[in-house]
Amino acid sequence: MSLPTGNRQEDRSLWLEWMRRIADPVLTSLAARRLRADMPVESRGTDRADYTYLEAFGRLLVGMAPWLESGPDDDSPEARWREQYGELARLGIDAGTDPESPDCFNFTQGYQPIVDAAFLAHALLRAPTELYGRLSGQVQRRLVKSLQATRSRKPHFNNWLLFAAMIEAALYRMDECWDPMRIDYALKQHEQWYKGDGIYGDGPDFHWDYYNSFVIQPMLIDIVGTVAQESDDWKRLQEKVEARAVRYAAIQERSISPEGTFPVVGRSLAYRCGAFQHLAQMALQHKLPPDLHPAQVRCALTAVIRRTLTVPGTFDDKGWLQIGLCGHQPELGESYISTGSLYLCSTVFLPLGLPPSDPFWQGEADWTAKKAWSGQSVPIDQALSR
User: Start and end of every DUF2264 domain (predicted)?
Assistant: First the structure.
């Protein structure tokens, strides 16, 4: 396979610009303890104000975390931004776990807190130094207590099992008391729900949507990668999980059209480019299929970012995300969707955790669909046999 030539650092600049635009209202308001006062709550549901603030923060950080954790610590503009946003994130954790704060998050009422505490926990796995290690001891203790409080929430019998498992994986990483049973149950149940060719069911049934990317495969990879050494059967499972993840990354890349669009199927389409968290994570972790050059994945994801984040109506006049896939489309918001939910789009930016010198940021290359529909040579697609 011929490698692309040239340099496309302007793509990295574009990604940074859009990630910062998405992050600014959430992080600056929460750091000032004004998130509830400043953030609108757009939703068809009647109770989303109980949950939307933790949603916004956890889902934003889960995409920003690898960039926050990366270096180098120099005097470049990007390094200064990284330090600035890391400090805002730590102030946000302080504000969200302080019982005296007007922005103290809900970790214990209703079912939803287990979901967004898990996204926050996933961010902690992705940036353990910046988002946990640099907190004061007092804030660390409050954060641990908040995560442990979600054990009173009963997850649904579907991808939600991974939320409980992710919280325990984060507690394990923080060297706190953790429950291996919650992890074991989620991992073994998802093994039962594997449908073949790189795809898991969302519970016992198969749903044609993007939840393999929103939740299932990214969390499976990082949970089992965190705790595999604690159990021989988890080590054996890790190999299968990673092989399936490679296949699903191939499917995701092939689903991006020459124009940067993708099939409008399934629920939670208002997460926009977050539908490609899995592909972004596989690029971040250097686990892409061997016939995918990282640059073609970058070019494909850049096209998706442009199609989902640059359309008028994506943001309101104060910079907050609005419900929609391409612009403002409130009809695409299920009853559980609210303003805070939308920040899962940040997960497309995971490869910002790679240094500018990484092959992901070098050169240009057409992605598979763009090659195929312009008459270029493309490799034959092959199913995964296990």
Answer: 11-365
Q: What is the DSSP string of 335-374?
A: TT--GGGGGGGGGGGGGGGS-TTSGGGBS----HHHHHTT
Q: Which domains does the chain have, with CATH numbers?
A: 9-372 (1.50.10)
pTM for this structure? 0.96
> Could you tell me the two tokens for 24?
């600014």
Asked if residue 338 lies in contact with residue 41, where contact means CB atoms within 8 angstroms, the answer is yes
Cα–Cα dist 229/311, whole Å: 45
Q: How far is CA 215 from CA 122, 162, 244, 349, in A?
A: 10, 8, 15, 16
Which parts of the chain register pLDDT below 70? 1-8
Looking at residue 72, what is its pLDDT? 73
CB proximity list for 213: less than 8 A, separation 6 or greater: 248, 252, 274, 275, 276, 277, 278, 279
Cα(309)–Cα(360) distance, rounded to whole angstroms?
A: 21
